[in-house]
Design brief:
Blueprint (H helix, E strand, L loop, with lengths): L5 H14 L2 H13 L6 H13 L3 H13 L6 H13 L3 H10 L5 H13 L3 H10 L5 H13 L3 H14 L5 H14 L2 H13 L6 H13 L3 H10 L5 H13 L3 H13 L6 H14 L2 H15 L5 H13 L3 H10 L6 H14 L2 H14 L4 H13 L3 H13 L8 E6 L2 E6 L8 H17 L15 H9 L2 H12 L6 E5 L5 H14 L3 E4 L4 E5 L2 E2 L6
């Protein structure tokens, strides 16, 4: 342009702020200042929006100073942009101060406050702001919904989703992504399927973001068949959908299938990234594919130009350690270019528990004690290593150390969704109104599986008690109670899906294989590490987990 006035500068800055790249909006704004072009409130609001997108708090504060100097601090448009900038930069109290001073608050400023509190994990204040809003639009509902989902409050997210449906408010792709994320975090497959039906009816199934969210939901609910079907029907697959499918197969124990999807991804011309290789290495890890895992780890840098990060090393330490190559796992840790994290030492300690390597396990535990002195995991694993070796005094010493340091062990529990309601169980739980029928069913199943070869592995009871009592302790683990409840309340022939917050017990793993054989049902059990699919007496993990 031979001549540029304030309007042309404003249009360009606003365009970059809205459509990106936001950095260009900042560059143009500084050029505009340098050339002393007269400006009004509009470029200031636009450049604040750019700072919010990046986020760039330093430049945002500089713009705020210019706003005050030039007398625009009372302009509603600029005030709203300031609230949004501070909220998205994590300075929610600064955003709140400006918000409180505003004479006119529009729905954008209200929504910015909700999003700001949600990003800081303060959902109580976010809910308070939401409830105070004089009017709401789809963006304010989405901010609240996403806040619940991202902060581990999936049940609250689903309640809000039901409320949205009752009042028939507008919904968009962001709404579905948030509610599907909530279903995924809670592993509520039936509710996820209902949301999928709503997606189809409203015409959002072809949306790339919604498609990836559906894929993620089915994967995290352990419905690998539905995940695969949805993946194959996707009209367009981006790197997120490819990565999600690779990870889904990996977490469900289908390592070979994960590698096949990875090969298809490369054949389709898609470029792999760091997350792709976390999925690939996890697939190798869960399937015990040591040679393949080592190949792909080396291939990352050599063939794809991707430098391994700590997550990739954690996968490799776990892969080598589980396979019994503890010395190689330790060598890999010592050769890393950065300090080992708790995840790294945790993987090595877990492998030491599997293989009974007391000395190396003690060393890994000591490293973990320094990094995470108040985490119960290392204490429990080391105590279990001692208990498995019959070293009861050493195990008691570790438990005493936990008590002295105020470290509490996370209680184990399992849950199952039946008729859109989640039922939770802990070990030897009798709080369920149907506990008599649950226990009768479980005891009957136990007698039946003993007749076809099940022998309780009392070595897994890490307490110095009589054998008969050890067998009693094994029988009423939370995952078995949940399975008995599922058998009572689900139609014959349908899968029973159970979720556990800790690693599934080894004896329970054996028992569930036998139960799947005598009742002719599939059991899908997700524990803290992966999914187990039990069918006809065998498990998808191949007894390697």
């Amino acid at each position: 342009m031979p001549e540029r006035d304030g309007v042309s500068w404003n249009v360009m800055i606003a365009g970059y702020a809205k459509h990106g790249p936001a950095e260009e909006a900042l560059k143009l704004h500084w050029q505009m200042q340098h050339l002393v072009v007269r400006r009004d409130e509009y470029p200031l609001a636009s450049v604040l929006s750019a700072c919010a997108c990046l986020p760039d708090l330093q430049h945002g504060r500089q713009i705020h100073s210019s706003v005050i100097k030039e007398g625009f601090e009372s302009d509603a448009f600029v005030e709203s942009a300031l609230v949004d900038m501070y909220a998205k930069c994590g300075c929610v109290e600064d955003a709140r101060r400006i918000f409180e001073k505003m004479r006119e608050r529009d729905v954008v400023s209200w929504t910015s406050m909700i999003a700001g509190y949600a990003c800081c994990g303060n959902m109580e204040d976010a809910r308070h702001v939401f409830d105070e809003m004089p009017e709401r639009n789809v963006f304010s509902w989405n901010a609240m919904l996403a806040g619940f989902a991202q902060n581990g409050l999936g049940e609250e997210a689903l309640k809000l989703w039901c409320q949205m449906q009752r009042i028939e408010t507008q919904i968009d792709s962001v709404t579905f992504v948030a509610v599907l994320s909530a279903c995924a975090s809670l592993a509520t497959l039936e509710q996820g399927k209902q949301v999928h039906g709503h997606v189809i009816r409203t015409g959002f199934e072809s949306d790339a973001f919604v498609g990836s969210a559906l894929l993620d939901m089915y994967a995290k609910c352990g419905s690998i068949e539905n995940a695969h079907q949805h993946f194959e029907k996707m009209p367009k697959r981006d790197v997120v959908s490819w990565n999600t499918m690779i990870t889904a197969y990996a977490q469900n124990g289908y390592g070979e299938e994960a590698l096949q999807i990875f090969a298809r991804m490369l054949q389709a011309g898609m470029k792999a990234n760091h997350i792709t290789f976390i999925g690939v290495l996890s697939g190798c890890n869960h399937a015990g594919l040591v040679d393949e895992g080592c190949h792909y780890f080396d291939s990352m840098r050599k063939d794809h130009g991707i430098a391994p990060i700590i997550d990739h090393y954690a996968c490799m330490v776990d892969l080598l350690g589980r396979a019994g190559y503890l010395d190689k796992a330790l060598d890999l840790i010592n050769d890393m270019a950065f300090e080992p994290t708790a995840t790294i030492w945790g993987a090595l300690l877990g492998a030491c528990r599997i293989h009974g390597n007391m000395e190396l396990g003690k060393y890994a535990a000591e490293c973990l004690f320094k990094l995470e002195p108040h985490s119960a995991g290392p204490y429990v694993l080391l105590s279990n290593i001692y208990s498995a070796a019959g070293m009861w005094e050493d195990a008691a010493r570790i438990r005493k150390l936990m008590k002295e340091r105020g470290v509490a062990k996370k209680p184990g529990y399992s849950w199952i969704e039946v008729n859109n309601k989640v039922h939770t169980f802990c070990v030897a739980d009798r709080s369920n109104p149907e506990s008599v029928e649950i226990y009768t069913t479980l005891e009957r199943l136990t007698e039946q599986i003993k007749q076809i070869g099940y022998v309780p592995d009392t070595n897994l009871v890490l307490h110095d008690v009589e054998e008969e009592y050890k067998e009693h302790l094994l029988l009423y683990h939370s995952e078995r109670l949940a399975i008995a409840f599922g058998l009572i309340h689900t139609p014959p022939g349908t899968p029973v899906r159970v979720f556990k917050n800790l690693r599934v017990c080894g004896d329970c793993h054996t028992a569930i294989k036998f139960i799947s054989r005598i009742v002719g049902r599939e059991f899908v059990v997700r524990d803290a590490n992966r999914f187990h699919h039990f069918r006809e007496g065998s498990c998808s993990c191949g007894d390697y987990w």
